[in-house]
Amino acid sequence: MSINRQQLKNLMLPVAMIGGAVFYKWMGYLSFLSPYLIFTMLFITYCKLNVRDIKPGKEHLMLICVQMALSFTVYFILSPLNHIVGEGVFICIFIPTATAAPVITAMLGGSISFVATYSLLCNALIAVAGPFILAAIGDHPEISFLQSTIIISSKVFPLIIGPLVIALLLRKAFPKLHAKIESHQSLSFYLWAISLFIIVGSCVSFTINTWDNNLIWTVISLVIGALAVCLLQFYIGRKIGKKFGDTVSGGQSLGQKNTVLAVWLAMTYMNPTASIAPAAYIAWQNIVNSWQLVKHSSKVKEE
Question: Rounded distance, CA 121 to CA 104, Å?
Fold first, then answer.
């Protein structure tokens, strides 16, 4: 029985996650690639953006306000109970929309430009505000707030804003090269799969090498917390989207997260155990997306 390209792509993400878990011992040699892969994925995605398609509206502002309010509410509720859980669940909400969100949105019949606009706004906000927030709640007491902010800014800002600037400059200076990159959007999917392989492996490696039986309830809480906020964000996003006539785009904008970036930020600037939450979110959001795609396909066939 032959496997077509779409079936192969559907298998790649689970295989990447399982592969990362199996070959976790070697992730130390590959973890340095994560920021470069994130940068390249964002760059390829931004190459398909046309400035004229970026039209922020009231619905985008509402989604951003809900995202920020929800992330801080969850953090201030959970952190006094368990700081690590508070950090992990916080980053699952705070992080921007996934680079693959426009692709899934299109498959579900939503608006690519809506999700791309929201993704851009989220990334810009987090590039500016993220360093201050991560410095404030991060686990590095030996570094002053100002030093921590500068260190995080120097890494996060170029990582998120840099790809957009280069993509826009490339469109103007080298339109043919830009068009070629724009026509190969599937590359970002394969880079995403490689990133998942490394990120999941790094999380498994860290968890095994630093395992403490006293943390078992923390780990369980991180996994359950990730599931709860995953379902909550898809639900709230779809409710807001429905109000403005685009249920799918609202749900994907708020619910589908750049978990690769989330895990990297958690492992770098928070208690590394907190990275288990966004790692679990990877599985939960893929389950939600798969269910939505199956449901949408059934609906299309019926019509």
Answer: 19
With beta carbons less than 8 A apart as the criterion, state whether 277 and 225 touch.
yes
Collapsing DSSP to helix, strand or coil, 31 comes out as helix
Spatial distance between the Cα atoms of 151 and 113, rounded to a whole number of angstroms: 33
At residue 81, φ and ψ (nearest 5 deg) are -80, -45
Distance CA 81, CA 216 (A): 15
Q: What sections of 138-275 are H helices per DSSP?
A: 145-173, 175-182, 186-209, 216-243, 247-255, 259-269
Amino acid residing at 166: I
CA distance 270 to 84: 8
How far from the centroid of its chain's Cα atoms is residue 151's Cα? 21
Q: How far, in Å, CA of 110 to CA of 99, rounded?
A: 15
The 3-state DSSP class for residue 98 equals: coil
Which DSSP symbol is given to 96?
P
Neighbours of 291 (CB within 10 A): 10
Range 89-127 burial, b when 16+ CB lie within 10 A, else e: bbbbbbbbbbbbbbbbbebbebbbbbbbbbbbbbbebbb
pLDDT per residue as tens digits for the range 75-95:
999 999 999 999 999 999 998
Contacts of 265 (CB under 8 A, 6+ apart): 91, 95, 130, 134, 156
Compute the C-alpha angle 17/276/138, nearest 5°: 135
Cα separation, 140 vs 129, whole angstroms: 18
Give the model confidence (pLDDT) of 173-198 as tens digits. 999 999 998 888 778 778 877 887 88
Residue 288 and residue 230: Cα distance in Å, rounded?
9
